Each structure stands twice: as C-alpha cells, then as structure tokens.
Amino acid sequence: MSQAMLIINPSSGKELGKKHATLAEETLATRFETVDVRFTEKEHDATEFARHAAQSNYDAVIAMGGDGTVNEVITGIAEQPHRPTLGIVPLGTVNDLSRALHIPTDPEEAIQILADAPARPLDIGKYDDHYFMNVIAVGLIAEAVEEVSVEQKTSLGSVAYFIEGLKAFKDHSPYPIEIDSAEKQFDGEAHLLIIALTNSVGGFESFAEDAKVDDGLLHGFIITKLGFFDALQALPKLITGGLSKADQIEHFTTTRVEIRSKEELPINADGDTAGHVPVTVEVLPQHLTVFSPSSAE
C-alpha cells in the first residue's frame, strides 16, 4: 500500500498551510492510497515526523512550509536506510530549493504538480553532523541575515538580504579565513564565503549559474576585499549570471572543504544561524529523490 506523509507548518506564509491543507491532502490521495497529515507545533517537529515516515517505510514525505521546514524534513530522512521521496509546497520568503527545482512559488500550482510529477535525484550537503539543502555562508552574510526582520522578509524578499549585505560590506573589514579542499586552498582575507548546492541563493536564481541539483558538487564563492561600490557593480551579475567571473570573487568546485579562521566567524545554513567555524562541509551526491516538474533540468 502506497503511503505519503504531508507535513504542514501552519504558521508559514501567513498561515497559507492551513488554507491549502485540504487541497494538498486531496491531491496526494489521487496518487497514494494513504495520506498521513501532520501539523508542526514547535521547532524540530518536522524532523521527528519525517524520521517516523522514513522508519515506517512511507513512499513520500511532503514538506509544506518555508525553507526551514524543508530543511527539517530533509534532516529527518537523510540518515535513514529507507529515504522517502521528498515533495515540496513552498510557503516561505525565499524558497531557494524550490526555485532550483522549477517548483512554482504559487502553493496551488505546486500542489497540483504533486499529482503526477516524476522523481529525480537530489544532492544534499552535510556540515559536521548537520544537513543543509542549499547554501552555507560564512562571514558577512551570516551576520546580515540576522539583521533582517520578519517585516523586511515579507515586504522585500531577497532584496532585504541584499540591502543588509551592502550595509555589512560598508561597515566591516574582511576576515581572516582558511579554505582547504583538494581543488582549492585559500589563506587570506575575505568578506564572505558561500558554498552552494544549487543555482539559487537568497532568491537570486543565477547566483551559481552552473550548479545543478544533482551534479555532486559544492560550488564555492570567495568574496575577497569587495567594497561597497564593487558590491553595487556586481548586482547585475547576481541577477543575470556571471558572478563567478566577477573581479574580486574566486570561484571553485569541490566535494569536501574545511573552513577555518583565527576569528569566531558565524555560519549560516539555509538562512538560519548554525554556529561558528571551524567547520567541514561535504556533498552527499544524489542522496535523496524529489518530486520535480518534468521541465526541470
């Protein structure tokens, strides 16, 4: 008997999860014989629900919420021998993984896709003993994200992060940072290090334009001594592509990287605060499968 678990964060997207719960359940019922609906009430609920689904041999787990909810679901299934296929109904502000998978940001459209969307392989990342689905940031952006208010996220979306990032570039000197991988060694000063799994970072879908969701690679960007006006000049490339070729940005690909610093630099994983360096980051190639429109690359 085919089974799916629908995990809904009722507070995501101005409580859109509650509004669309019935449609999601009815749509999944056309594909699965049993649909188990769970609503989260507190942090880590989604992880526990997803872990139960994996251990109970469910066929699919659908995350209905923002990036944080999706991250929790991935964490719940990543270490299990049986890993259900992931489905996503994006209700957050940025929704980077959904963008990379060409999943519509409109909840109703995303739900309809689940009726017959094929499954495809999906890379995920691991930093020390934790998992991430899209991006690790070390340095200024990690600090800037903490300054973005809920109101800014709602009204400005990705632009809010860029505005706070510009402020950070203006107000801070670069940090000492060491990067060690088989493909790249760096020991110097940088404002920011970004390790991306997909093309979409912070809502900018051409940030890592060559990245694919199943290419088995980490895409690294070292932003060295970038001034305020340099950051402004880089904005068009951030939107349209070509950031990897911009001046004062070093780009590399690898499968595992160690990051260290003489300072206590903050880490941000998928938009949330995640401790400080040192940290080891690696990719888990095609570790999961995910429902994605057939038009996705």
From TrEMBL:
Keyword field: ATP-binding, Kinase, Lipid biosynthesis, Lipid metabolism, Magnesium, Metal-binding, Nucleotide-binding, Phospholipid biosynthesis, Phospholipid metabolism, Transferase
Domain DAGKc: 1-131
Lipid metabolism found in the keyword field: yes
Pfam family, one: YegS_C
GO function term, MF aspect, one: kinase activity
Cofactor requirement: Mg(2+)
Official protein name in the record: Diacylglycerol kinase family protein
